[in-house]
Amino acid sequence: MKRNYILLIALSVFVLSSCTKGDKVIAEGETSGIALTVVCKEASTKATRPGEDAYNENRLRSIDYFFYPEGGTGSNAVIHKRVGVDVVGQHTISVNLDEATLNTVLFPGYNQTCQVAVIANYPTEITGNPDLETLKGLTLSTDFKGSPVQPSFVMFGTETVQLISRKQTTVAAPTVELRRVASKVTLSAHVSQSVEITNKIIVGGVEYDRIETWTPNMEGMKLYLVNGEKNAVVEGDPSMVATHELFKYSEREFTNETETHTITRQVYNAGTSSWTTVTSTEEFIKSFPYYTYPETWLNNDPKEPYLKLVLPWTRQAGSDEHGSWGSVQKQFYYHVVLPNNATGFVSNNWYKIFLEVAILGSDTDEAQVDIEGNYYVVPWNSTVVEKQVDILSTRYLSVAFNSYTMPNTQTLKIPYVTSNKCEIADLNVKQYNFNTNQYVDKTATALADNWVTLDNNNNIVINHELNNDLTSSGFDASPYIFTFKIWHQDLHSYVEELTITQDPAMYIEQDTTTTGRPVFVNSTSSTQSNYAHPYGTSNYYLGVIINRSAINDQGGNTNPRQYTVHVSVLENSNWYLGDPRVSTGTTLSNLPERTTATGTTGLYRYRQTDDGMDDCIAPVFKIASSYGRTYALSYEQAVRRCAAYQENGYPAGRWRLPTAAEIQFLVTLSDKGKIPALFSASISGNQVSAYWAAGRKAFDGTNFTTIPTTATLSGQNTTQGERYYTYNSRYYYVYTRCVYDVWYWGDDKVANPGQWAGYND
Q: Are residues 387 and 448 in the same domain?
């Protein structure tokens, strides 16, 4: 028993000496401390991406620390102090504690932990002892766009502090890893030594392809970040920022530093029309860093951040069988987009972009070519190994424009620039039928007949023959609308969407007229009939408007649509294109609401239809909808009616009577089922229902009859009566439908179409 007792005492002495070796046991009344270490840069190894000292990314100039007892982060900090320093990477602070603070404030009772929060490099003094959420919400506003070397970066970190012993000189030794609030973006670029492009040249009226060689001027290459975020909170959560403020860097040249990487490319061989994969090791030049506070965005958001690369290229002088050309230098622009899945910049992340530039960009700053490289996103001071993998050749796919018009042409070649093999997808072709008011799907025919293909010279080829023969039953009367995608065969996220409009020699457009306005210049009366000034037999009156509420598209002459007819070629026809109007404007007196300085009402220098232009058709004209319906009226009234007509935003003073050819042309369109009937003329016994054309010609559905001024005009022009002519033992009830010269006036609507707009005095 005695020996066992002695052994127990010896073991106790051994344990005590083991615990206190190298540490001081505090006596009652002495102070102890916490050794607080803050770290913003780990050991630099080949496999890590710590901050760069050259840009002060690891510089510590001030440290604010805040301690909270266990479970007390929602209340004020019990300890707060700001320490001024000027160190790089890490720093240890001795936080002195008296016995009362240690045992009753920071680690009360049996608590073995507390919380510490650290803010480094905050630009102003942090007053008071704020709780943790208040600390996280402290605001920042930094303009990073000046020098690439920033004075310092605001950093933030928290850690649970584990009590070692209440009886040691150092009661706890926490290490707080600081995270920068900002994000970092860099780009490393490899630029091809030369690029060959195919340029379209016209010599002697003949187009041919010219191969040009362009070389880069690396010393002029510049880069800048667009749509960086200026404002943040210490926590780094962009959703906590009350007011976002975007900024743009100024152009910066690249550094003199380089790095090498392996590039895997797809290369097109024109001779074999095939793509092969090649690998090479290339040198990349590094940019200066760009900084931004955290932000979020949606794909294709107009405020989405991007890098703009500016690179001058020189076209080398050359010659071919068609002639020679000189050297020229131009500046090109590239829109370096972020990855498709990127939706935000995150605090303390480094966005490393590797980009191969192997195409010419856009030669205007506004129309940059989209180009996307390979991205690594790594924490700024991470021990995560960056993958050492091949960098794929920069993918790109671009066309000059995403919409094209083919004006009565069969073939269109659209050049595209690509890094990888492409294919056509999601082709849709349709054509509108104005008679049935619906699109007709032409996609199956387009696919079967290869209307859209890719050739071996990187051209999208549209090849579709139009039918412009107006004597045939199936002539084309409306545009073909092609929509499709061209994308990388192996990665469909690289895609361009195109719309091609192929216009026939003659095509129609339509617009629906609303009932919200009168169809004539309004004088003083508000009643519907008085819009037309119907009463009396005087030629100064404009005829009676038929009730507008009847324009409901339910049979007969009740069509609310206004058609625009475009004509570029008239095949197999005696008609010709031209200006059907008189060359010198005429005066129409006593028209409402057109008053000169002398008080005379009327329309001056009005370009009405020339009586001698029977076979002329305007290149582009509108035909009035059924809102222009009228009871039968005299020829003089019809002329004035068209002069005073307005509809759908197209103002009075610009409408006129149609020519005979224009009426026949529209009748042909309706007879062939291209549009509904607009001129429902007929003969029944000795009663003729007709439409006026210029030159006093009345169209009866088949022929034109010239009604002379000597013909008898009868009937009262009231809401219940019609005027008719007695001629050649027939009674001619003649109506009118006015036209508008879009080719001359344009297709823009005006705000007040009921006011005179067609005069030129």
A: no
Out of 180, 210, 226, a domain closes at: 180
Q: Whole-prediction pTM value?
A: 0.56
Quick one: 468 and 495 in the same domain? yes
129-143, 360-374, 528-542: the lowest-pLDDT one? 528-542
The pLDDT tens digits for 274-326 are 788 888 888 999 999 999 999 988 777 788 898 999 999 999 999 988 888 99
Question: Which residues form the domain of 62?
Answer: 27-180
Tokens 């496999």 appear where?
47
Choose among 491, 324, 286, 291: nearest CA to 393: 491
Q: Measured between alpha carbons, how far is 665 from 662 in angstroms, rounded to an integer?
A: 5
d(CA 721, CA 631): 8
- What is the residue-wise DSSP string for 676-690? --S---EEETTEEEE
Q: Are residues 384 and 404 in the same domain?
A: no
Angle, alpha carbons 747-752-757 (nearest 5°): 65
Strands (E) in 10-50, as ranges, are 32-39
Sort residue 590 into left (φ over 0), alpha (ψ -120 to 50) or beta: left
Do 377 and 239 fall within a single domain? yes
Identify the CATH number of the domain in which residue 112 sits.
2.60.40.2580
| Residue that is written with structure tokens 């960009």 in the block | 361
Q: Which of 388, 368, 291, 304 is nearest to 339 (CA)?
A: 304
Give me the count of residues in the chain: 761
Spatial distance between the Cα atoms of 686 and 623, rounded to a whole number of angstroms: 29
The C-alpha angle 396, 402, 404, rounded to 5 degrees, equals 140
Tell me, yes or no, whether 661 lies in a domain: yes
Which sign, positive or negative, has the C-alpha torsion 644, 646, 652, 657? negative
